[in-house]
Structure formats: structure tokens, C-alpha cells
Amino acid sequence: MPDTADQLPDLPADWPNRSTSRCVIASGLRWHVQRAGTGPLVLLVHGSAGATHTWREILPLLTPWAEVVAIDLPGHGFTTGDTPDQLSLRGMAEALRELLRVLDVHPAIGVGHSAGAAVLLQLCSSREVAPQSVIGINSALVSLNALGQIFLPVSRALADIGILRAGAAALLRSGTLTRALLRSTGSPLDPAQEARYVALLSSERRVGATLRMMSRWDLDALVATFPTLTIPVTLVHSTNEPWVPFADLLRTTRTIPDRRVIDVSPAGHLIPDEQPLRVASIIRDTFEARPASPE
């Protein structure tokens, strides 16, 4: 059964929507889960190096009509998990499936930002969890290019060698590098939200988890499942965002049978921070347009 947020001793007192936070044990992990509202279930999944604060403004916009479950992925935010298997795409999806079983919830809509969209689509590929629609926001579904192939062994070394991982965390802890990374997303953040990212990325544990996640991300296997998807997929994207090239995303997802694209340009990579009202509206509209459930 879920426990209170007091079971998450490192969760800051001013964490967004903290009153909805709970500790849940599932799949051998201690999860940070935020749950609020009543109605059809909307599952929110953040991206790499993120946490539930991604949805800080969106969650309360949804709860008047929906039950919302937002989670910290394994190794991220305030959820445990540090092994390569736990941080692989397949491992995260399997752990999330078990969490949903423990919570005894069945999402009507799954919403993923960046890498969170990949986790949701991996989850749906097994057909054991079948939301009526999936929404990907600036979805990180693009296979690695030549630069990525060079980066892979570097990120793996940073993840696996403690002294290198600690050095990466030390660089991020100063805030200078983290702020530069945040600026590279093209999304303006207010000082409080920026400070949360800096705090999260000053942790060696979280830096290591993010690097392990990035170094073992198997998108090719996921993309191969796209033709078999039986649910509608909505891609909310900005054509000018710098992290996931729009043309590459369209090419990679062309085999999804029921794909819709919504352009919210201009916006950077962190659309949930920039356009919470628009994202909340798209979620509501997607739910209302979903296929009717069979009687």
C-alpha cells in the first residue's frame, strides 16, 4: 500500500504538488508517486534527468476532471534504481507495469515527455498495458546518429567508473554546466524550476542513473514494434526545438499506424514548462476524442 511522502526523506518540503506525493514499493524499487483527482486516469511520465516537477503546473489543471498519476522513473528524482537492467528502456517499462499493477490503476491516457514517451510506447508494445491513447511531448524517439555512436562509450564510462561519475556530478553541482544544458533546450525556466534541475543534477546517484539510461537506450528495438501498435499516438512537438529534430522524429515514427502530429511552435524542448495550459488542453481534447470503449 502507498505510504505518505514522509517515507521519502530526501523529498524537499517545497517540492511541487508535494501534498499528492506518496512512497510506493513495487518491482523491488521505492517509487515517488504523485496521485490526485478523480475520473479517467492520466499517467504522466517525465524524461531523462527529470522528475514529477516536469508536471508541476499541468497536474492541478487535470485534476478537476481526471485522476492523475505522475511518477519518478527508476533512478530519477526520488525513485530508487541504479542497475543497468533497471535503467534500460525495457527494464523501466517492465518496472512501471508492475507499479501500475500494485496501484491497481489502468491509464486511459499516457503522457510522456521526451524519453518518457519512449518508456510509454515500450510499455504499450507488450499490450499488457493498453491506454486508449498515448501522447508524446517532444518525444525522444530518434535513433542515435554518428555523434551518438561516439557518445555512447563515453557515457558508459562515465556511468560505470565511480571517479568519473563523481567528477561529472561535481561539474553539474556548481550549476554552471546544468544551466548551460537547460539553456540549450531553448526553454526559459523560472528561477525556482531551474534550481530544482540544478539540485537534482548535483547528485552523483542521479547523474549516474541518467548516464546509464542514456548509454543503454535501445530505441531501434522499440521502433521495430511501431507497426504493431494498436493505439492512437499523438506527437506534440515544436519544429524549432533543438534536442529532437522534427524531420527525424517524423521519419522514425512513420510506421505507427494511427499517428497524429500537433505543432506547438515556437517552443523549446521543455514544452510542459513553457506551455502547461496548451498541454493540459491537448490531453483533455485527446481524451474526449478517444475511441469509445466497447460495451
The named CATH superfamily: Alpha/Beta hydrolase fold, catalytic domain
Report how far apart the termini are.
31 Å
Order of helices and strands: EEEEHEHEHEHHHHHHEHEHH
Q: How much helicity do the residues have?
A: 40-55%
The general outline is globular
How many domain regions? 1
Mean pLDDT, to the nearest integer, reads: 87
CATH architecture: 3-Layer(aba) Sandwich
Report the β-strand fraction as a percent range. Answer: 15-25%
Structural class: alpha/beta
The rounded Rg comes to: 18 Å
Total beta-strand segments: 9
Helical segment count:
12
Arrangement of strands in the largest sheet: 1-2-3-5-4-6-7-8-9
User: What's the CATH first level?
Assistant: Alpha Beta
CATH fold field value: Rossmann fold
Largest sheet geometry: 9 strands, mixed
Show unreliable segments: 144-161
Task: Report on the architecture of this protein.
It is a single chain. This protein is an alpha/beta fold and 295 residues long. The chain is 40% helix and 16% strand. It has twelve helices and nine strands. It has a nine-stranded mixed sheet with strand order 1-2-3-5-4-6-7-8-9, with helices on both faces. Helix 4 (146-160) packs across helix 8. The longest helix has 15 residues, at 89-103. The protein is globular, with a radius of gyration of 18 Å. 45% of the residues are buried.
Helix and strand topology:
Elements: E1 3-4, E2 21-26, E3 29-36, E4 41-45, H1 58-62, E5 67-71, H2 89-103, E6 109-113, H3 115-125, E7 133-137, H4 146-160, H5 162-173, H6 176-184, H7 191-200, H8 204-215, H9 219-223, E8 233-237, H10 246-252, E9 259-263, H11 271-274, H12 276-288
Helix pairs in contact: 2-3, 4-5, 4-8
